[in-house]
Design goal:
The complex is a heterodimer of chains A (279) and B (300). With 279 residues, chain A is an alpha/beta fold. Helices cover 35% and strands 26% of the residues of chain A. Chain A has helices at residues 2-11, 63-70, 100-106, 121-131, 138-148, 152-155, 168-181, 198-211, 224-230, 258-263, 268-274, and strands spanning 23-34, 37-48, 52-56, 80-88, 91-92, 107-110, 186-190, 216-220, 233-241, 248-257. In chain A, the strands form 2 sheets. A 6-stranded mixed β-sheet of chain A has the order 6-7-8-3-9-10, sandwiched between helices. A 4-stranded antiparallel β-sheet of chain A has the order 2-1-4-5, covered by helices on one side. In chain A, helix 4 packs across helix 5 (138-148), helix 4 (121-131) packs parallel to helix 7 (168-181) and helix 7 (168-181) runs parallel beside helix 8. The longest helix of chain A has 14 residues, at 168-181. Chain B is an all-alpha fold. Chain B has 2 domains: 23-58; 61-295, MetI-like (MetI-like fold, Orthogonal Bundle), CATH 1.10.3720.10. Chain B is built from 12 helices and no strands. Chain B has helices at residues 4-10, 20-55, 61-65, 78-109, 115-127, 132-144, 154-178, 182-190, 195-222, 227-231, 252-260, 265-295. The longest helix of chain B is centred in the first third of the chain and has 36 residues, at 20-55. The two termini of chain B are 50 Å apart. Classes of the chains: A alpha/beta (279), B mainly alpha (300). Chains A and B meet through helix 3, helix 4 and helix 7 of A and helix 8 and helix 9 of B.
Chain lengths: 279, 300
């Protein structure tokens, strides 16, 4: 694991090999069901600290479903239920004593479609720190978040203008900066570039590479090249039909270092998908 | 192309001409629609014209600064005007918090798979269509007399009008809240905001223009209501301004009603002037609603 990870990292020009001391998420036989229909089942893998983990697979295979169970966003969907064990820093995310709001403070999320609040750029960033009651100078918090989101230079002169006036790519970086402002330690990204052009996508990928120095990132993507470019580990999902063909359930076929998934996968289904034969 | 003669040959053979009957029906329907529009505009126009003709000469500051009198030469509607302002202010103070809170509950918290929530919804929609006289009876039986026994005062009148227009506020409030896209709520919750913080700081501010429009439209319905006020006992001859919630009162529509039923023709002209005052207030309120709606109209 460790050596493969460092090889992968060096391939992308990282100067020091990464050492994984800690699995930030331990996902153990996790399943998610909506109103009794199993959307994913038997998911077991670990997500490591300061890495980018990509979830890939065909549409409807439950990548987003699993992602949303990592910060308990599935709680907001009536009828959703999670089975199995999901440990975050060794703590059961779905224990009775755990408050979903507290979970989301630590685990930020960026959505498929940029969803800035209908407020100024400044207020978009300041919202999270304000509701969490973070102390410190708000101007500094906003500037720091926008710098980390690689947006500061573009917007520093128009912080008070409405965020809807930004381009789609800027809006998405604003949403990333907004998530960073609350000092999470994991950022979940649900197809963050699917609504963006290639140039904006490139900027967000650069940003992700920078962010993984300080954060762990889990990204769902339909873009195979994107997974290959940015991620350290990749989980390949597939869809299985019930015997009667009525219910589609997602499962993980293979989880490994990204380089291995893309160059030498163990499972032929993975190979067929990443090489573009199916999908 | 040497197509000119050729295309002449083709006319009507590929695309058949419209049938004469269909064309006539088209014209007929359009005429019918214009006629119905014309009829309603004509009625409204005549009404406004008559009122303007009778009343315009009597609209003056004196009208607004004099109290009712048996002498039409010195009669005014100050007490009715301030009474209406009192009613509207108290009514707004009642319907905004209650209506918005109900709308929030029904949109954000109520699980509409439960029968009691569905029952509440159906009832609110039905209540919006209950005749205003029924609210008057309710106000008389419960607010003026009966268990609450407020007497014939501003508070009783305003609450009765409030109950009457509350369904409008709730229904428009729900629509405004529903128009805030779920992605805003998700974005807020994903930052670690609680459901209440999300509602208070994101959903409500984004839906305020819609809610405000609903409130103004509700008040513009309340301002013209006469029947329930007669029942809850607003007096028609009040020579003083309301001094508080427990004060007796009258209101513009009642004053107009009173003047119209007087035998002297001068009072009819005063009534027309009163109608103009009421209409201007209505127009101003509706204009504000439209302005609010356009100014804050959002494209998500």
């Amino acid at each position: 694991m460790q050596s493969l990870g460092s090889v992968a990292a060096q391939d992308r020009g990282a100067s020091t090999p990464r050492i994984h001391t800690e699995a930030i998420f331990k996902i153990d036989t996790v399943g998610v069901a909506y109103n009794g229909n199993q959307a994913v089942r038997d998911i077991t893998f670990d997500i490591f600290n300061q890495e980018i983990t990509a979830l890939i697979g065909p549409s409807g295979c439950g990548k987003s479903t699993l992602l949303r169970s990592l910060n308990r966003m599935n709680d907001l969907i009536p009828g959703a239920s999670v089975s199995g064990t999901l440990l975050y820093h060794g703590e059961d995310l779905y224990a009775d004593s755990v408050d979903a709001v507290q979970v989301r403070k630590r685990i930020g999320m960026v959505f498929q479609k940029p969803n800035p609040f209908p407020k100024s750029i400044y207020d978009n960033i300041a919202f999270g720190p304000k509701v969490l009651g973070m102390s410190g100078n708000m101007d500094d918090i906003v500037e720091s978040a926008l710098r980390r989101g690689a947006l500061w230079d573009e917007v520093k002169d128009r912080l008070k203008t409405n965020a809807f006036g930004m381009s789609g790519g800027q809006q998405q970086r604003l949403c990333i900066a907004r998530a960073l402002a609350t000092e999470p330690d994991v950022i979940l990204m649900d197809e963050p570039c699917s609504a963006l052009d290639p140039i904006s996508t490139g900027r967000i990928e650069d940003l992700m590479m920078e962010l993984k120095q300080d954060y762990s990132i889990v990204i769902v993507t339909h873009n195979m090249q994107q997974a290959a470019r940015v991620s350290d580990k990749t989980a390949f999902f597939t869809v299985e039909l019930d015997e009667d063909g009525s219910n589609r359930t997602g499962r993980v076929v293979e989880y490994d270092d990204t380089q291995k998934i893309f160059t030498n996968p163990s499972d032929e289904r993975t190979e067929a998908y990443v090489s573009g034969k199916v999908g | 192309m040497s197509g000119a003669p050729k295309s002449e040959l083709l006319v009507g053979s590929v695309i058949p001409p419209a049938s004469r009957g269909a064309h006539l029906r088209d014209i007929g329907f359009r005429g019918l629609l214009i006629a119905s529009l014309g009829a309603s505009v004509l009625v409204l126009g005549t009404l406004i014209y008559t009122v303007l003709e009778d009343g315009l000469g009597h609209v003056s500051l004196d009208l607004l600064t004099r109290f009712p009198s048996f002498n039409p030469k010195i009669a005014g509607l100050e007490s009715a005007f301030t009474g209406t302002l009192w009613l509207m202010a108290v009514c707004a103070a009642f319907i905004v918090p209650v209506g918005v809170a109900t709308a929030i509950y029904l949109e954000e918290f109520a699980d509409n798979t439960r029968w009691w929530n569905r029952l509440i919804e159906v009832n609110i929609q039905n209540l919006a269509a209950v005749p205003s006289i029924v609210y008057g009876i309710l106000g008389l039986a419960f607010l003026v007399r009966g268990p609450i026994s407020l007497g014939r005062v501003v508070l009783a009148g305003a609450l009765t009008l409030g109950l009457l227009v509350l369904p409008v506020v709730i229904i428009t409030g729900r629509e405004a809240i529903r128009a805030v896209p779920p992605s805003i709520r998700e974005g807020s919750m994903a930052l670690g905001a609680t459901q209440w913080q999300t509602i208070w700081r994101q959903v409500l501010p984004a839906s305020i223009p819609g809610i405000a429009t609903g409130v103004i439209l509700a008040l513009s319905r309340a301002i013209g209501e006469t029947a329930p006020l007669i029942l809850v006992g607003a007096a028609t001859f009040v020579a003083f301004n309301p001094t508080g919630l427990d004060s007796g009162f009258t209101a513009l529509p009642l004053q107009i009603f009173n003047w119209i039923s007087q035998p002297q023709p001068e009072f009819k002209l005063l009534a027309a002037a009163g109608i103009l005052v009421l209409l201007s207030m209505l127009l101003a309120m509706n204009a504000m609603a439209i302005w609010l709606r356009n100014k804050y109209e959002r494209k998500w």
